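User: Good morning. I'm curious how S-adenosylmethionine would be positioned relative to this chain. Could you predict the structure with it bound?
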Amino acid sequence: MQEIVEKLYNTGNLSDSELESLLETDDECALNLLTVYADETRQKYYGKKVFLRGLIEISSYCRNDCLYCGIRRSNANAERYRLSREEIMSCCENGYELGFHTFVMQGGEDSYFTDDFMCSLISEIKQKYPDCAVTLSLGERSCESYRRMKEAGADRYLLRHETASEELYRKLHPKEMSLENRKKCLFNLRKLGYQVGSGFMVGVPFQTTENIIEDLRFLQELKPHMIGIGPFVPHHDTPFSDEKGGTLGLTLKILGILRLMFPKVLIPATTALGTISPVGRELGLKNGCNVVMPNLSPVDVRKKYDLYDNKICTGEEAAECRICLQKRIESAGYEIVSERGDAL
Ligand code: SAM
Ligand code: FES
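Assistant: Good morning! Here's the predicted structure, ligand included:
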């Protein structure tokens, strides 16, 4: 098994059968070696730097009905909110004072946030904070919408492909959604000049090793600037409430594989990883992650952006999260930096 890790480190790629063996092994020596090489590779390109992104969760309204997600439209128990323009601007102001140079506006697919609304908001943020990057994560929109928001100043877009398998995609989503459209959105975003982030959940119901290999192959084709993966965590008010969540071990292993396959990519240590283990994000950093996304949303709405159960950081003020993460990053031996943190 160690030869497979050596090969991945030396060549940045493996055959499907080698990936299958690595994804299924519990050989500790090989997995320790994967961690060592993932850290070495990340340090070769990024040193000990960890970039900060301030996450602003702008809406819990969503027209989609993904079976895994707590804010799916069929969840009548979900508490819905949307932030006003003034509230979003005040999150940015707070974030800027705390040293953030990237604002990520994420939300459910909410038609309230029209292109006109978003373009005017993005222009105002870029005018007030010209040294900051604006990242959007608003789901699937038309190519024209993506083009207008790019022209208004948006720099990056996060849209996980969720799964690259047609068969699995259909089991996780309602009929009206399609993998084809999701992929089309990602290629449109790339073409328009966004720095693109994609990714998937680990351990989602019905996922097989073969599906994970398909995800890695799709990422090789898309060549995103950022890759976000995190464990699936069940939500009590969804059809997957009784399913098992993704494991820490498999998520860390895939993070290590991603770092070796995509040496220069930006990889966040996600909130979901911090949710399934008290040291999940620290372990993520040691397995190749180089980004953290502390929450800048107003505390009174945090619990309502309820994607999965037991989500962390829902009671803390932005400043508390910033300090907490700084301590965590330093304890893992890395260094928080406040630069924009574009992909190399
Ligand atoms: N609406 C936008 C979109 O579709 O990209 C952004 C918001 S969406 C809620 C953000 C991400 O949350 C999804 O891409 C999905 O991977 C993740 N997510 C949703 N439900 C989850 C769950 N139960 N466990 C872990 N991650 C989840
Ligand atoms: Fe939010 Fe620790 S990162 S409280």
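The chain has 14 helices and nine strands. The mean pLDDT is 97.
Let me know if you'd like a different ligand tried.
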